[in-house]
Design goal:
Layout (H helix, E strand, L loop, with lengths): L4 E6 L10 E2 L5 E6 L2 E6 L4 E4 L8 E6 L5 E6 L3 E6 L4 E7 L4 E6 L5 E6 L2 E6 L11 E6 L6 E6 L5 E6 L4 E5 L9 E3 L6 E6 L5 E6 L3 E9 L22 E10 L6 E7 L4 E6 L3 E6 L4 E7 L7 E4 L5 E6 L4 E6 L4 E7 L5 E6 L5 E6 L4 E5 L5 E5 L6 E6 L5 E6 L3 E6 L4 E7 L6 E6 L5 E6 L5 E5 L5 E5 L6 E6 L6 E5 L3 E5 L9 E4 L4 E6 L5 E6 L3 E6 L4 E7 L1 H4 L22 E4 L5 E5 L4 E6 L5 E6 L18 E2 L2 E2 L39 E6 L5 E6 L2 E7 L16 H10 L2 H11 L2 H10 L5 H7 L5 H11 L6 H14 L1 H6 L1 H28 L1 H22 L4 H18 L6 H6 L31 H16 L10 H21 L4 H18 L3 H17 L28 E4 L5 H8 L8 E4 L16 H8 L4 E6 L9 E6 ...
Parallel strand pairs: 59-60
Antiparallel strand pairs: 1-58, 2-3, 3-4, 4-5, 6-7, 7-8, 8-9, 10-11, 11-12, 12-13, 14-15, 15-16, 16-17, 18-19, 19-20, 20-21, 22-23, 23-24, 24-25, 26-27, 27-28, 28-29, 30-31, 31-32, 32-33, 34-35, 35-36, 36-37, 38-39, 39-40, 40-41, 42-43, 43-44, 44-45, 46-47, 47-48, 48-49, 50-51, 51-52, 52-53, ...
């Protein structure tokens, strides 16, 4: 296995002490975590720990204004200069004193640093490596106590230095005429901060008692404020005397003291953090309080504001909290907290996505391994957590604690759903879960017993006794049949938990067993003992197979209170935690030491030795101690001499004059460096350590490594590319893997056509299979070619399954990496799908309809399709039987029937034994059998009770369908008979209004007959309707309001039409312009319509000028004849204006499924209109949107009428004129008598109104509009409307 692991991230700690800094763009915040710096990307939700370390804990960090340079300064003034963009260290420098504050000038030319009571100004270094990049510009003195804060003026010429001596001083970087060093006093406590206003006309100072002073600059004796930096002269040219004065003094009125402060000049916001965990925001200079909130139980040690002033960052060192607050919306942008005390245990989920940690603070946290964020914290335990373990499903994990409980947590609902306890209170120190997740075992340190519970019931199943010392470790074998336990009684015992009659194997050691681990294949177990050795045992034979002497390897540094050197001390020379690598070829061990050792299992050689920390603020890091730092009161490092950044400052003894070192009895806590738990990721590409500093993650770094495989002279990048260009993709990909250059592999891989993947995966050499899977796993999460990757994965695993199974142990890390990548993509896509549920439903329906249409175009309809359609319609029939009959169904013509449910509905037909047969391939016997079964099934269904002649209508529909099916199966070569059957089916559809199942079957059979009927030959002349604008467009006097589709989203539409009383018709321009019916498969091409609908399909055509006239009638015409005689003026030019044929309000889409792929329902049909209370009977729950087609020549009209439904009217081609009247005008529109069929239609002829018969009509008011192709007109319910075609047109109405 590869051993090039490098430190990649620090997750368990988010803030320790020091200051927080925002990047110039305000999207990231930098936080010091021990001796490292972590960058929290607040936009992309990721964390990154920079790859450098200071010698000690960082006290101050500062970022240059352009974001290029980062200065990181530790407790003793050791400075690291970092190129922040490239994450590379440029220089190390020693400022030789403890730094109180450091700030870059706004122009980036200088930085000022407070060292004790003095301030030093240095020139900013460059971005290149130099021998001496730091150049001291000037040193400033004058304060009598330590510096607390430094801030620069906006012009970079001056800076303010605040001090504990209760004053603030103004300094200039260079000598300026008229300026002298100025001292601003007036505070009674130490000054926390001071800042210039943006216009430099004021200075704001804040002290620890919450006093805020506003200071102004003016000439002496003149009542006019000046801008600082402009020094006035008198008439003689002499500099006038100027002064700073306190204009106003404000108080925060808080009982706690001010601990931290920040000011944003652009927004004039002052933010103060107090010792009680409360922060407040004030607007300067009037000191108006904007906001106040308690965010912590401890003091807020640092505050930062991003450049835009929107986000505030707070850090509390006592609790290790980091918070980013958006004060305007009062929401958390980031809220993270590490473990309050040491992290004691860790566990990876099965796919490596999550890491669970437990700490001595009794908390359990779950971290995202990719982002580094903690996304859930469980606080149910009341004592230190000693072990955590994931189950195989990754959605459940368990924790054991010294409080005597084992708890199971659900990562789906984020809850503690099971608690396991023992009959008598004990302290659990170890935990194991079997691979199935059914058995939970925990070992204790009190009674030396192992308790076993059922995950399902939570009941105690058994208690395993036999150990004579505390249980230190538990582990299940990979198959779950054996449980291993290690104890301080020098033994490891192997338990068969399912067969207690078997003898317990006992593996005896010479010293106490500290940790155990099973190899991933379960054939070997390793155990570490107190003498520093790692022992290996063959599980099947219970024999020792070797050992590693690691005492010298794990030996750490010398602690501050050690009386012996590190070499002679016995402390920390054993492994307290062990784990195998994912492939089982290496063992990782750690303990109470600064080192983690990686051993090769086969040879026992030490492969790598990782030093987990170089932070000298931790005890045990240094190999040797400096005797000069040993005082009579003990080691100097443990004495809190100045109390900076700690609460011990108030305890410093200053009772005697000249005493500055404080009380030497005050001590600092110096934690000991150690690794309490180690775990390899299931993917094998990273491992994690629960250390004193937090959760350290080390990952493989393969970016800059040239690692060829089976390379020869003929394999070059040029030859690989040449093979890819020639189409020899298999050889090109194999040779790219032999070169092992990642960019070349990716180039060849992505050049392979997706259709060739299935063939390439069959012939791909198994020697390169692992490398290809690793490559796919490395790019699958960052690439957009998701389907392409899944084709490769599926093909490789399907064609090489035997090879993968035989090498399952070696390939397990790669397969887990693939699983993690696919699972993460599945979660991301799932989240996106959940947020776009209805859009995806629509896309799926459209895709299904398109596939069905393409299948029907090909004419290859099998008997499997016939019977499948029956089964589908049976289920629809059963669903429809639950819906009550209603007026809405009757009016809209859907013809739903009240059908009795039958238990055998879904079992009425058996699938055809030869599904490859098409309908036309059936023999006469097959056809007769099908006809008999079909007829028997149909006649078993009852007729509609609400039809006048229900039995006759029902039988007519049955006979028409049976005739069509019989014709389809038996009379293939008789076109006349087929045409007759087709006409009968269409006639039954239009006149009988059959139930939904019959209707669906009829359409299918009619389409099958139409697809086999000889095609009609049409002329080759242009058959597309002209899309030009008519010349005789009417002038609009009261136009309907028009909206752009960009301005009318779903929420705007719903709010616009929500109020029933005030809603108005509206037009959404270009709302349907993207329909294929207007773009790629234009319905204005009438020959396309002929082909999609069918030339011989009968459609109901209205003949006459209006259905209110006496000469109006309706006739069933073949659709092709309607196009030829009506839609083409050249075909029959003698038709009069008053006798216009009109295909009106017909569900043409149910006859021509191909047309359904050319349009989709607008999202506006999904809104809740609020008008359904007008006619609740018409709007039953679950009613569908009803779609009708309107196709006709110029001059067709629809008389003035109203509908009871919300109507969206889409214009596909042509132009139409609408005149609309509000429902309150009904009495003036003279509707027909109530109860008649025309009660929703007016008696007034809009084109030539008779004012003598209808005098009130002259008093009406109206709206009018003209709809163009692509427009969507909304008509509210009960609005009267009159429609006239201004040209040959086609429209789609959608009632919802």
């Amino acid at each position: 296995m590869k051993t090039s692991f490098k430190f990649s991230n620090l997750c368990g700690t988010v803030y320790k002490k020091g200051n927080l800094v925002f990047t110039p763009d305000g999207n990231s915040v930098l936080s010091p975590v021990g001796n490292r710096v972590t960058v929290f990307d607040l936009v992309n939700n990721r964390t990154e720990t920079l790859p450098f370390e200071n010698k000690r804990d960082i006290r101050r960090i500062v970022l240059s204004p352009n974001g290029n340079l980062l200065l990181s300064i530790d407790e003793l003034g050791q400075t690291v200069l970092v190129n922040f963009r490239k994450r590379s260290v440029l220089n190390y420098f020693n400022l030789k004193d403890k730094v109180r504050d450091i700030q870059f000038s706004p122009d980036g030319a200088y930085f000022a640093v407070g060292l004790g009571r003095n301030i030093e100004v240095w020139r900013s270094p460059g971005l290149t490596r130099e021998f001496a990049p730091f150049e001291l510009h000037r040193k400033f003195t004058g304060h009598y106590d330590d510096i607390t804060h430094i801030s620069w003026s906006p012009d970079s010429r001056f800076f303010l230095a605040s001090s504990k001596d209760m004053t603030t001083k103004i300094f200039s970087v260079s000598k300026i005429d008229g300026f002298e060093q100025t001292t601003l006093s007036g505070h009674r406590y130490a000054v926390v901060g001071a800042w210039f206003s943006k216009d430099m006309r004021a200075i704001y100072t804040v002290s620890t008692d919450g006093a805020v002073c506003v200071r102004r600059f003016r000439p002496f004796g003149v009542e006019e404020n000046l801008t600082f930096g402009e020094f006035p002269r008198d008439d003689e040219g002499n500099l006038m005397r100027t002064i700073w004065f306190t204009e106003s003094r404000h108080y925060t009125m808080q009982t706690a003291k001010v601990q931290s402060a920040a000011f944003n000049p652009s927004t004039q916001l002052l933010v103060l953090g107090f010792t009680n965990g409360v922060f407040g925001i004030w607007e300067m200079p009037d000191f108006n309080k904007i906001h106040s909130l308690s965010i912590s139980r401890k003091a807020i040690n640092t505050v930062a504001i991003n450049p835009s002033g929107e986000w505030l960052a707070f850090g509390s060192s006592k609790l290790g909290q980091l918070l980013v607050w958006e004060w305007q919306s009062e929401t958390y942008v980031l809220k993270q907290q590490g473990h309050f005390y040491d992290m004691s245990c860790i566990a990876y989920s099965g796919d490596g996505q999550y890491i669970a940690t437990g700490g001595d603070d009794a908390k359990v946290k779950v971290w995202n391994a990719l982002t580094g964020y903690c996304f859930i914290t469980f606080t149910e335990h009341s004592s230190a957590v000693t072990a955590v373990q994931f189950t195989k499903g990754n959605q459940v994990f368990l924790s054991a604690s010294l409080d005597g409980t084992v708890r199971a947590y659900d990562l789906v609902r984020y809850r503690n759903f099971r608690i396991f306890t023992s009959p008598t209170p004990v302290q659990f120190t170890s935990l194991a879960v079997d691979p199935s997740g059914e058995i939970v075992c925990a070992g204790c340190q009190d009674t030396f017993e192992i308790y076993m519970w059922s995950m399902q019931t939570g009941k105690l199943l058994d208690v395993l006794s036999g150990h004579e010392g505390p249980i230190s470790a538990l582990a299940f074998r990979a198959d779950g049949l054996s449980l291993a336990s290690g104890s301080w009684d020098n033994t490891v015992r192997l338990w068969d938990i399912f067969d207690r009659s078997k003898t317990v194997e006992q593996l005896t050691h010479s010293h106490e067993v500290m940790a155990i681990a099973y190899r991933p294949d379960g054939k070997e177990i390793c155990a570490s003992t107190l003498d520093g050795q790692i022992h290996f045992w063959d599980v099947a034979k219970a024999e020792s197979t070797g050992s590693i002497e690691g005492r010298r390897d794990i030996s750490g540094g010398r602690k501050a209170n050690d009386r012996r050197t590190a070499a002679n001390s016995s402390s920390g020379k054993s492994f307290s935690t062990l784990c195998y690598s994912a492939d089982g070829t290496a063992v990782l061990g750690g303990g109470n030491s600064k080192y983690v050792c990686l051993y090769d299992r086969q040879s026992g050689i030490l492969l790598r030795k990782f030093q987990i920390s170089m932070n000298q603020s931790l005890d045990g890091v240094q190999e040797k101690l400096n005797s000069k730092l040993m005082t009579e009161a003990g080691p100097a490092d443990l004495i809190d001499s100045d109390g900076i950044d700690s609460d011990t400052e108030k305890h410093v003894d200053r009772s005697l004059p000249g005493v500055r070192s404080g009380d030497k009895s005050n001590r600092l806590l110096k934690p000991e460096v150690r690794a309490r738990a180690l775990r390899f990721s299931p993917t094998g590409r990273q491992w994690a350590a629960a250390s004193t500093e937090g959760l350290l993650i080390y990952s493989l770094d393969d970016n800059m490594v040239f690692d060829p495989y089976e390379l020869d002279e003929d394999v070059t990048p040029d030859t690989v590319r040449d093979l890819a260009r020639k189409g020899d993709y298999l050889r090109a990909l194999v040779n790219a893997f032999r070169l092992n250059e990642n960019y070349l592999i990716r180039e060849v891989y992505q050049s392979i056509p997706p259709l060739d993947v299935a063939l390439l995966t069959k012939d791909f050499p198994e020697a390169y299979l692992e490398r290809l899977l690793k490559f796919i796993a490395s790019i699958i999460e960052s690439s957009q070619l998701l389907e392409f990757h899944l084709r490769w994965i599926s093909g490789l695993l399907s064609n090489h399954g035997v090879f993968v199974k035989t090498r399952s142990v070696a390939l397990q890390p790669v397969l887990r990496t693939l699983q993690r990548g696919v699972t993460r993509l599945h979660q991301d896509i799932g989240t996106t799908c959940d947020k776009n549920h209805y859009t995806l439903d629509y896309l799926l329906v459209q895709g299904k309809q398109q596939a069905e249409a393409e299948k029907e175009e090909s004419g290859d309809i099998t008997m499997q399709d016939v019977f499948a359609s029956f089964d589908d319609n049976d289920s629809e029939l059963a669903e429809d039987s639950e819906e009550p009959d209603s007026e809405e169904h009757e009016e809209r013509g859907s013809g739903l029937m009240d059908v009795d449910s039958s238990e055998n509905i879904g079992n009425s037909f058996d699938l055809d034994p030869q599904p490859h047969k098409t309908c036309c391939d059936m023999s006469e016997a097959d056809g007769k059998e099908l006809f008999a079964r079909m007829y028997g099934f149909i006649t078993s269904r009852p007729a509609a009770e609400n039809d006048k002649d229900s039995e006759g209508v029902h039988m007519l529909a049955i006979l028409a369908l049976a005739e069509g099916l019989e014709c389809l199966t038996l009379f293939e070569n008789y076109p006349e008979r087929q045409l007759s059957a087709l006409n009968d089916i269409d006639r039954a559809i239009v006149t009988c209004r059959p139930s939904k199942p019959f209707l669906c079957w009829m359409h299918k059979v009619a389409e099958w007959i139409e697809s086999r009927y000889p095609k009609t030959v049409v002329s080759k002349e242009s058959r597309e309707i002209s899309e030009s604008v008519p010349d005789d467009l009417p002038e609009l006097h009261h136009p309907v309001k028009r909206y752009s589709v960009d301005d009318m989203d779903m929420f705007t539409f719903q709010s616009t039409i929500a109020d029933t009383s005030s809603s108005q018709p509206l037009i959404i321009e270009n709302a349907v312009s993207s329909w294929p019916a207007l773009t790629c498969r234009k319905w204005s091409n009438l020959e396309y319509l002929r082909e999609a609908v069918g030339h011989h399909r009968l459609v109901p055509v209205e003949i006459g000028s209006s259905y209110t006239q006496g000469d109006w009638t309706m006739k069933l015409l073949p659709f092709g004849e309607f196009l030829d005689s009506v839609m083409y003026p050249s075909a029959n030019g003698h038709r009069s204006k008053d006798q216009t044929d009109y295909l009106a309000q017909h569900d043409l889409l149910s006859q021509a499924y191909r047309l359904k792929r050319d349009f989709w329902l607008p999202d506006y049909t999904q809104v809740e209109t609020g008008r359904r209370l007008l006619d609740s009977k018409s709007y039953e729950a679950g009613s569908d949107t009803l779609v009708n087609i309107w196709l006709g020549p110029k001059h067709t009209i629809s008389p003035l009428h109203y509908d009871r439904y919300d109507n969206l009217f889409a214009q596909v081609f042509g132009f139409k004129y609408f005149r609309l009247f509000h429902p309150d005008q009904s009495s003036r529109l003279y509707p027909h008598d109530s109860g008649s069929q025309l009660e929703n239609t007016s008696q007034v002829d809009i084109d030539s109104p008779d004012y003598e018969r209808f005098p009130l009509f002259a008093q009406t008011s109206y709206l009018e509009c003209m709809v163009r192709p692509g427009d969507l007109l909304y008509i509210p319910p009960h609005w009267w409307h009159y429609v006239r075609s201004l040209s040959a047109s086609m429209s789609v109405s959608m009632w919802f």
